Amino acid sequence: MTGGALGIWLINLPRSSDRRAHMEAQLAALSLDVTLFTAVDGRAEWDRLVPSVDLAAFRRNVGREVMPGEIGAYHSHLGVWQALLDSPHDVALVLEDDVVFHDEFLPALETALRLRDEWDFLKLNKIRAKHPVAQRRAGNWVLNAYLGPATGLGAYLITRDLAARLLPVMLPITRPIDHELDRIHVHDFRHYGLEPFPSHVDDGNVSTITGKGFAEVRKFPAHRRLPAYALRLTNLIGKARHLAARGRLRPLRQPPD
Questions:
Q1: What are the tens digits of pLDDT across the range 143-194?
Q2: Alpha-carbon distance 66 to 243, whole Å?
Q3: Which of 85, 98, 86 is closest to 158 using CA atoms?
Q4: Could you say which architecture CATH assigns to the domain 6-245?
């Protein structure tokens, strides 16, 4: 599958050598060739990165302080998208370094690539994938859109065309990158998940972004989070209108493949 239409990139901080070794062993067992992408270190490079963040908008939109690690992660994903555009590949499989692949990962990936004309961005695991709306069945899997929040970027596929369209409009940073990508009504693309997901994320409760046990997440008091709650509702309404206008809320009547 690699070497042609598909390129695979693994995002990893150099200091996370154990994670890198674990991922490389899993990928070797799957016979998947991967390109290592050195992650942007949000903590070490904060002074360079902070001008790319609209701090006031981020705090208003998310209801908490910005974490340097998530800004590094944001720029890391943008860097992989640029690497895709600089490559001969049509599709990128983008992996963070805490993914666990299930036994059916390769058949799921083959199915996803067979359907690549039907999606622009396809999640292969999730943090949240609320209120799925089935778009089509393919063998053991269902291609779902999501009315609710669809977050997490542990493993996903993105097309060259979408990367080219998104890169010019992703800065300044006003929310985490997975939240930005959930705004399908703003960016107008087919953001789906392949379920049952063929992988999951396991960071051992020690995240390079949120710290051990989410220790670095500093939420504002409830009254200061009201704009973020309002934004979530606006996002849900926008997504529903977007999907309805494109006929993606209709009941699925297609029989299984």
A1: 999 999 999 999 999 999 999 999 999 999 999 999 999 999 999 999 999 9
A2: 30
A3: 85
A4: Alpha-Beta Complex (3.90)
